[in-house]
């Protein structure tokens, strides 16, 4: 195998692994998954506020959290998403510590890139 083929096999040809975990919420199991880059971009677009700030955009943090829950929550072992945008009123009207907050707390571990940044700085 030539050098280019080795590089391609180790990069674009490599199987992609996304983190996921099963969480118990309100007595039921939900699988939450790390989003890919396309889903991350869609979440950013859905979370942008209409008012721009000096850095170029502003993110509505509640929308950010809700769209992560919608896009990353699945029936365990399937490709079926548990929630959709019709559930947004349920997410926003609940008390602190409800199922949406529980899912968000769990999702933060999967979307965090802090470990990745630390590893990159070491090399």
Please characterize this protein's 3D structure.
The chain is mainly alpha-helical and 123 residues long. The protein has a single domain (18-111), classed as Phage tail assembly chaperone gp13-like (rbstp2171), CATH 3.30.2220.20. It has 6 helices and 3 strands. It has helices spanning 3-10, 37-47, 61-72, 88-93, 99-111, 114-122, and strands at residues 20-25, 28-33, 73-74. The protein has a 3-stranded antiparallel beta sheet with strand order 1-2-3. Strand 1 (20-25) and strand 2 form a beta hairpin. The longest helix is centred in the last third of the chain and has 13 residues, at 99-111. It is globular, with a radius of gyration of 18 Å. The relative contact order is 0.14. The model has no long low-confidence stretch (mean pLDDT 87).
Order of helices and strands: HEEHHEHHH
CATH architecture: 2-Layer Sandwich
- Form type: globular
User: What portion of residues belong to β-strands?
Assistant: 5-15%
Give the overall pLDDT as a whole number: 87
Strands side by side in the biggest sheet = 1-2-3
Rounded radius of gyration (Å): 18 Å
Q: Give the N-to-C terminal Cα separation.
A: 27 Å
Structural class computed from helices and strand pairing: mainly alpha
CATH superfamily: Phage tail assembly chaperone gp13-like
CATH class: Alpha Beta
Question: What low-confidence regions span 5 or more consecutive residues with pLDDT below 50?
Answer: none
* CATH topology-level name: rbstp2171
- Say how many strands there are: 3
Name the descriptors.
single chain; 123 residues; mainly alpha; rbstp2171; three-stranded antiparallel sheet; 6 helices; 3 strands; 11% strand; globular
